[in-house]
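We were asked to recover a plausible sequence for a given structure. The inputs and outputs are reproduced exactly as logged, with field labels preserved.

PROBLEM: sequence recovery
POSITIONS: 296
GIVEN STRUCTURE:
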């Protein structure tokens, strides 16, 4: 009973994380127009580092071990460096709905890396539901006429792979050191690499950017880069990496809804139909059994 309650809490935390992440592409689309790719993609972590440094010092958190540091480097490469930079660059030429569809492949990437990194073995039912969800978003992509890939598409697909590994590694490490500690240390590790490129992309014109641009950037720095990961890694640590990763199938459609609300992109009936199909695959996948490899 206690284990079931823990899994439910993990799913709820994962859902909270997904809702927060769903505003990332719309916010990025607004911010890059005024601040540029590098400042938005990497600058968010510099701002977030101020917050996490205060928390880490205030709580007197002990330094990660050498083994944990290696895992944190993987998390940092995906969640702090690779994904923000690649998506910021892609959002300069793609609409949010386009990016949302391709990011829907994240659950499959996360589950695949979970098998390798965390020793999880999802059942056939889990994989069938994952494939069904992926097929739904592929059909949606074809419907939107997104069949032809270009450089920005490859950037998003690379972002999916990098973040999938980061999610799996972070979810595993969160069981040891805690969810917020994972992303906090990952941000601190990345900051020395980020300061120079971010500084070189600061200009006086940024001071004249509209309020919506600054709100979008601060959202990316405080929520997308830190608080959302606290909920997400905590959810995976409590509910299981593969199981909680299924909730990500809701993310593209939440992104599209937010894009319609804040960027005035339209929502078709077909989008709603596909969203229902994806939600069903999430429910089925969430209830599928996931075994753990026996320790040797």
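RECOVERED SEQUENCE:
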């Amino acid at each position: 009973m206690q284990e079931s309650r823990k899994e439910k809490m993990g799913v709820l935390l994962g859902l909270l994380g997904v809702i927060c992440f769903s505003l990332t592409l719309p916010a990025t689309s607004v911010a890059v127009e005024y601040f540029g790719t590098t400042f938005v993609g990497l600058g968010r972590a510099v701002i977030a580092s101020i917050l996490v440094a205060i928390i880490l010092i205030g709580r007197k958190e002990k330094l990660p071990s050498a083994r944990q540091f290696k895992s944190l480097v993987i998390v940092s490469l995906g969640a702090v460096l690779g994904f923000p930079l690649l998506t910021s660059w892609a959002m300069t030429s793609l609409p949010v709905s386009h990016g949302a569809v391709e990011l829907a492949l994240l659950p499959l990437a996360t589950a695949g890396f979970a098998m390798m990194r965390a020793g999880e073995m999802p059942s056939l039912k889990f994989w069938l539901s994952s494939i069904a969800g992926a097929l739904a978003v592929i059909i949606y992509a074809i419907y939107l006429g997104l069949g032809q890939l270009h450089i920005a598409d490859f950037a998003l697909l690379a972002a999916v792979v990098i973040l999938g590994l980061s999610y799996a590694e972070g979810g595993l490490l969160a069981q040891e050191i805690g969810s917020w500690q994972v992303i906090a240390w990952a941000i601190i590790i990345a900051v020395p690499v980020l300061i120079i490129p971010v500084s070189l992309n600061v200009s006086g014109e940024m001071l004249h950017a509209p309020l919506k641009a600054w709100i979008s950037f601060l959202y990316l720095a405080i929520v997308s880069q830190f608080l959302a990961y606290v909920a997400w890694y905590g959810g995976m640590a409590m509910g299981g990496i593969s199981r909680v990763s299924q909730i990500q199938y809701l993310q593209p459609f939440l992104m599209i809804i937010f894009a319609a609300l804040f960027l005035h992109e339209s929502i078709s009936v077909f989008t709603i139909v596909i969203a229902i199909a994806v939600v069903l695959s999430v429910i089925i996948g969430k209830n599928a059994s996931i075994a753990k490899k026996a320790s040797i």
